[in-house]
Amino acid sequence: MALNVVVTATGPLFTLVEAKEHLRVDHNDDDALIEIYSDAAVGRVLQYCNIGLVPDSPGAAAAFKAAALLALGELYQNREPILTDGSPISNLINPYRWLRV
User: Fold this and answer.
1) Using a CB cutoff of 8 Å and minimum separation of 24, what contacts does 8-17 make?
2) I want to staple 98 with a disulfide (CB 3.0 to 4.6 A). Which of 31, 35, 42, 50 is the partner?
3) The total number of structural domains that make up the chain
4) pLDDT by residue (tens digit) across 30-87?
């Protein structure tokens, strides 16, 4: 049975303004750092699912956006390594994860 998956590439999952609102940052001093962490956060959730684009299915964009914002918050607040299983992030995007056999 063939699996049909539609993916979309409509731009970034969130803007710098949305990222700063999520982080509750109201200054511009960390903009460059937030952009770097934003790219890393989006990459993290896509890599976790072993895909390159967000699936075009009901709820997927919101789940990936929320997961990426959670990852961004984790990166921004914890600039030093910490031990975490990332469960809130993985719980949001587990349904979209592609596993290779």
Assistant:
1) 8/53, 8/54, 8/55, 8/56, 8/61, 9/53, 12/38, 12/42, 13/42, 13/54, 13/61, 13/64, 13/65, 13/68, 14/38, 14/65, 14/68, 14/69
2) 50
3) 1
4) 999 999 999 989 988 888 888 888 887 888 888 989 999 999 998 899 876 565 565 6
Residue 61 lies in a domain: yes
In a domain, 78, yes or no: yes
CA distance 29 to 65: 24
| 10 part of a folded domain | no
Handedness of CA 101, 47, 23, 79 (dihedral sign): positive
Domain that holds residue 81: 24-96
Please report, in angstroms and rounded to a whole number, the separation of the first and last CA atoms in the chain.
16
| Amino acid code (one letter) for 52 | G
| Chain centre to alpha carbon of residue 64 | 5
